Amino acid sequence: MNDQEGDRENGVYTLPVMLGKPRSLAVALGLVVSGVAVVAKGLAARGLSSAALPLAGLGLLTGWLCWMAYGVANSGYEEKVVGTAVDESLQPVGLGLIMLALCA
């Protein structure tokens, strides 16, 4: 998000360039939440209770990512806040991918 102006100047069509920062953040959050919901529904339909713990972890991770996104939006998309949010999200997102693999 911090590179929106540079992307626009160079003709790179990222979500922040095409939709603006608030809408692109909402789209990203929507994808995360809907992805977790689809996985949870699919596992519940197959009766996989062994995935309950990883799914609970994914739920907590999703909530945390939503909180980080709220902080970014609330800051007015300040460069420092966006950078911190991205840096602090990389490791938990990797953990989320591992949890998804455990659910499979």
Q: Quick summary of this structure?
A:
By secondary structure, the protein is mainly alpha-helical. The chain has helices spanning 4-9, 15-19, 21-45, 52-74, 79-103.
Topology:
Elements (H helix, E strand, L loop, with lengths): L3 H6 L5 H5 L1 H25 L6 H23 L4 H25 L1
Helix pairs in contact: 3-4, 4-5
Alpha-beta classification: mainly alpha
> Uncertain regions: pLDDT < 50 for 5+ in a row?
none
The mean pLDDT is 80
Question: How much of the residues is beta strand, in percent?
Answer: under 5%
Count of extended strands: 0
One letter per element, helices H and strands E, the order comes to: HHHHH
Gyration radius (Cα, Å) is: 16 Å
Rounded to the nearest angstrom, the distance between the terminal CA atoms is 32 Å
Number of helices: 5
Total tally of structural domains:
1
Structure in words:
The protein is elongated. It contains 5 helices and no strands. It has one domain (about 20-104). The protein is an all-alpha fold and about 100 residues long.
Structural descriptors:
104 residues; mainly alpha; elongated
